[in-house]
Amino acid sequence: MTIAEMVAKARVAQAEFEKNFDQAKTDAVVREIGKTVFDNAEMLAKMAVEETRMGVYEDKVAKNKGKARGVWYDLKGKKSMGVLSVDPETDLITMLKPVGVVAAITPTTNPIVTPMSKSMFAVKGKNAIIVAPHPRSKKCTAKTIELINKAIAKFGVPKDLIQVIEEPSIPLTQELMASCDVVLATGGMGMVKAAYSSGKPSYGVGAGNVQVIIDRGVDYDKAAATIIKGRIFDNGIICSGEQSFIYPKDEKAKVFDAFKKNGAYIVADADHDKVVNALFEDGHIAGDVVGQSVQFVAKKAGLNVPADARVIVVEAKGVGAQDPICKEKMCPVLAAFGYDKFEEAIQIAKTNLLNEGNGHSAGIHSNNEEHIRMVGEGLTVSRVVVNAPVSTTAGGAIGSGLAVTNTLGCGTWGNNTLSENLTYKHLLNTTRVARISPKVHQPTDEELWG
């Protein structure tokens, strides 16, 4: 089937769905999409690991279940069609309407939950969606869509409301982006730039490079355990995964002991370049280390690390562009930086972010509310996670207040439209019916300017 045929069928299906499905019926379909991935989490995780050869099976199971629960938790009971509100003072009526056909570009790093969440967001707003998976994960993504379509058929959903390109390619993805109504681009920076150049409204993402500050006075053991938990989740392929920790120099022994206690292998200064050269090629992350284990990375670097090592820690030789280890590392490796004053910690994080990952996310472990707010004010990121794993919190977690998603906007800092987590509200058009309300006093010039 050609892209033109897929889009034409999507438009017919979307019009039928919009006409025949009210809020309750729509929400039943959205729930079923999430529940299908939840119920098939193990099988889909196994497929993803085997096809992509990246990540950790147990973590992918947790991710499939967690994101399915979280997205439905966010969307459940939310109004997404018809009259949303009537302002009691101005009588302004706000109405919600579909955007049409959504093109969803999905990555090989999250080949199950990204198409799931985007489908839930799209259908919540009565849109059709066509998924363009990464070629390296086309089978598991196609299987996900197949299972979803089979599950929602019982609700009388039009056949072509949710589709997937089974044999994806760059030309087909580009054609899809140019033919749809809005593009959701989650993946590499090249694909995000292509989406922005498609001529259609697009929501993209930015590169991650999460900097985590460890404040004085915290439980270093707990902080280390939390940071490592976030860094090693799914072998570090999540864009919101911790990349560096920034610690107080005068507490280095305590901090590093805490990391060692929790399974960190601290790289000797003499082996620094071995790790850097194993991770990066021509300044970019080496493809063969993405989503791989500690043992794989260590072997490539020529290091002998204990069999039970959970993460590799490298002390940086500079900040920002001064050392490649300051960049995003999509595997279980952390960079470490020491600071004297807290303001210096913020500056280190900011310098690293300006080098790569600006606009994405950061973390802090602190009991000092003033310091927490200083980080929020001082860093150009769209989200700061406090005393929790950034990798599994920045993309939304129940109780965090952040929308649960797999598409994390980075604002203009990261060359994105959004500086928040993408959700269903971004796939809605809005009509506002306005009139001059007699309830609103019209001020005189003196009242207004005096």
From TrEMBL:
<dbReference type="GO" id="GO:0016620">
    <property type="term" value="F:oxidoreductase activity, acting on the aldehyde or oxo group of donors, NAD or NADP as acceptor"/>
</dbReference>
<keyword id="KW-0560">Oxidoreductase</keyword>
<dbReference type="InterPro" id="IPR015590">
    <property type="entry name" value="Aldehyde_DH_dom"/>
</dbReference>
<dbReference type="Pfam" id="PF00171">
    <property type="entry name" value="Aldedh"/>
</dbReference>
<dbReference type="InterPro" id="IPR016163">
    <property type="entry name" value="Ald_DH_C"/>
</dbReference>
<dbReference type="InterPro" id="IPR016162">
    <property type="entry name" value="Ald_DH_N"/>
</dbReference>
<protein>
    <submittedName>
        <fullName>Succinate-semialdehyde dehydrogenase</fullName>
    </submittedName>
</protein>
<feature type="domain" description="Aldehyde dehydrogenase">
    <location>
        <begin position="3"/>
        <end position="393"/>
    </location>
</feature>
<dbReference type="InterPro" id="IPR016161">
    <property type="entry name" value="Ald_DH/histidinol_DH"/>
</dbReference>
